[in-house]
Automatic annotation (TrEMBL):
Coiled coil (UniProt feature): 879-906
Positions of region (Disordered): 1-42, 169-193
Low complexity bias (residue ranges): 173-183
Keyword Magnesium on entry: no
UniProt-listed Pfam families: KDZ (PF18758)
Protein name (Swiss-Prot/TrEMBL): CxC1-like cysteine cluster associated with KDZ transposases domain-containing protein
Alphabetized InterPro entries for the sequence: KDZ
Source species: Rhodofomes roseus
Segments of skewed composition (Polar residues): 1-18
Basic residues composition-biased segments: 22-36
Key words, A-Z: Coiled coil
Amino acid sequence: MASVRSYLSSSVAVTSGNPFGPRKRSRNVKLSSSKKRREENAAEQRLFVAGLSFEDRDAYNALNAEPSVQPQEDNQDNDYEDMYSLPPGEEAFFLSHAGGEMELCQDLVATRRKRDDFRIRHDRLLRARAEWQAQLPTLVDAYLAWKVSISGSSDVPAAGADYNQQQPDADVQQLESQGQGPQESGGEGQTEGLGPVWEWEVTTVEFFVLSKQTFKHVPPARYANATLVSNGFLGSSPQKPTVAISLKVLDAYRQLHRACPRLSVQAYVKSLCYIHRVPLKKHLVKQFSDAYDIYLDIQYHIDKLVDSALGRDTPDWRMHNACAPCLYKLEHEPTLKYSLLATMDGNQSLKLVDDAFRNGRVRADGQEARTDIWLLPSEVDRFKDEAGKANNKASAIATDVTASMEVAAIANDTDRAPDVANAEVRYDHDDDIAWLGLSDREDDGNLEASVDVCVERWRNAGPEARKKMFALFAKTGIFVCLCRHGQLLILCDMIRSGELMKYPLAIINKLMEVYGPDILVGYDIACAFAKTLARSSLGPEARRLRMAGVVPAFHGHGHNRGCQVNWHPLYMNGVGKEDFEGCERCFSESNALAAGTRLSSAFHRQQAIEEFFRFWGEDKHHDSGTFIYNNYRQALNIIADDSRALAALSTELRVSTTDLEEYLKQEREYIHNRKNESPEVARKLDYLAALRRLEEASSKLTAATVELRKVEGNIAQYATKEVARVRGNRTRAANRYFATDDDCRAYEQELQIAVRWLPASDEYQEACQLLTLREYQRSLDELERLVVQRLFELTKAGMSGTGYKLREKISKALKARAEAIRKALKRYNDKAAKLNPPRPQLTWSEVVDMVNLADFDLLRETRDDIRKQPWAQYPNRRATNLHFNIKRAREEIERLNVEIRRLLTSMYDEHVDYHLAVQQASVSAPYLAHELRERWQYRNSIHARIAARLHQTSQLPRFSGTLTTGLRIGRPATQNDGIPLPFWAHGFVGMETEEDGGFDGEADDTEPLFEGINSERDANVYVDFIDNLGRREPS
């Protein structure tokens, strides 16, 4: 039953009378009947007006507001009619019909209600989009014709030819009828066989010219914008364009945005306004943005025509041909252990603010992504519950953890994946555990603890920060997958969440579906993801296709040693020298899009991302020759230098390569069998810690009691506040003592300890040793945490794009971090000295040189037999790393030799495809043939550069590959017959060499380690300066 709301009035009292005398209540009016009273008052007014003569009505109008000529309510219609109805006795005023008075009167008094217009801007956007799409094919033809006209080519029809034989559309007729567009010209405006020529004036925007131009619209051209495009301009609206932007201006913005993703549409329009000396207005940005969207539609439509002509319109063609060195497999080529090396990761820079947090109404324009680089949300959400299902399966497969880890395919010598190591540090479980695919019911405690340590080292903010962020953003970033050369394979949006496991699962599913078996994927937390993958619905298929995982090289140094010996690329067969850090390099560039996309529409954000990866792919293809050259030279240098160092070290240590391989197996076996601190021992240590707190609380209580007795013995000499303070201290000390005593009793009851431990008892002394060890390990954990943060900040200081203020802030943080490391080092040395036997003391130089965090894990091992093991000794560990580094370098050369032939074959086959496509299109589609010819010429110029780099690679000492082409699997052997070689393939004639200034033999795509530091020597001086900050003792 609804309650009556006492704070709302249902009626109002109307009183009348003398305001200075007693008031008289006249009536009580209900508010619910207000509409009825308004209607009654309106009826009385109509009766009053109807009884007035024309003269009286004019006087009435002079005293009162004239009724609305566009009535909005039914009762206002009656007012309008009564005002102009005939007064009583004058009904025959217009009966004569002389002079048309009757018709005039009927026109005046006729009630014409204006039709309600329920259209909103959303409808206008959808209609404009539909109109643009309807004329897009015509605009594409006009654009291709315009490109021919500006190229001066004579092998195709001239621009302005009959590219559309349909009749003029309605927009031209509307422009003429409304006097805003094309107008018929006289005399020479007639064109023989085509009918009248229409002319209209448009404001045109070029780089340095802002003017009004008159365009001639010649039938049978159908659209006004087609006429503009054929003259090098594009209107900002589908019909009746009054502003046209030069196609060259639009293309310039596209290329500038390619080179500088930070350049927004608003900044570009602002610069044009400065050039043209006009003030910036919001609608100018909107006009340019609309025209740019259609310009990109034209470009992508042309791309589809080109792809169709080249035979590239088959399903998943882009993914199968994303990277020639990785995917252009040839017949009879050597078999590699992994057919594809890829890396995937999420990035939260490209967020999109939710429409709920913006002003105004959402305006959907129906535009969607133009390319197939995206995984649809429906494809991703298939795996949204897989992490939870994986937890439910934990008990069912806990006895076969090793088999599950085979899905992650650790590629060691035995091709088996031993359990990931146990970890000493445990972290509280929170709701982020679901993200890892782990649960509190996890049976494999070693694996869970190890995963906790690995992931904690790579998430600085934690789940709370993500929760605060997700409410604001509809899309929180992107999750990408790249090949080892940096080419994009597939990506998806992260929607209202962090890096959930459904995103990598969807990526893995797509990779297996398209590329098949033997794929190795790098992922920051591959050690945790392997469990989720094994227990998901993809587990059986992943085992069958031998899907493998690896932790990226730099990220791997932040994982614990148990994870490194199984997941780090250095210890995995078949990976070569790939570091799997391509996503980080990509994100360092794509982050520049964030400023311009965070508050854009969903479509414009997707459009910017698509454009970025389109040009990113072109740049990576252009750099593929340099990539091969640099990696080949690096691998050769590693083999030469490290082989000499390993030979000298092996002679000194009297070890062989077989011994070094065995050291790694022994370390894996030890870590696999290592046990964590048992719960019973942990509770005993907690009990000992409680006893120590009780001892301290007892001492404080005794001191407080003595002080209280002293004050109470001579209370007259103390102030009231002082007495109250002493009594309060004694009360707090007593409360703390009794609370700690209760804790001790609870531990004693839980551990079934009949007699409380005393400092002289054996149990107490044994527990003290274990507690000292725990304190030592925790001080080591703190020291390691500070070193990890220092590594991160040094890396960020040298990252491209880091501004001056941020670098200054990082430098201050490094200085503070150096002081913190020095203090943590002192605490560590104090704890290490208390161990039995004492652990070696660490110096500042040793700590700052611990780039490989595995050294910290060795410090955690306190058993004497571990330090005496050969694999744990530093010289042997250094020799082992040299051995595996050489092994990986030889694998890198093997893979590069395969990639060289693939790349050369792909370049030649593309030349053949263009040659055949141009021949076929020259007759049926001459404009398209001209476009194909231009692209063919540009690609050949790029391939000449790549061929030069490959030739330079072949000149390296100890080069073992061949510069020959092969036959792609599935390509007809006779397809290339009779096709002339490209100019860059004729003995590499015309290539740029060092003498020509083409390149200097050094890597030309690398960036300085630190901003403003251009040499390795300067970089080392800077790092030494940072290291020395903590050596100075405080004054």
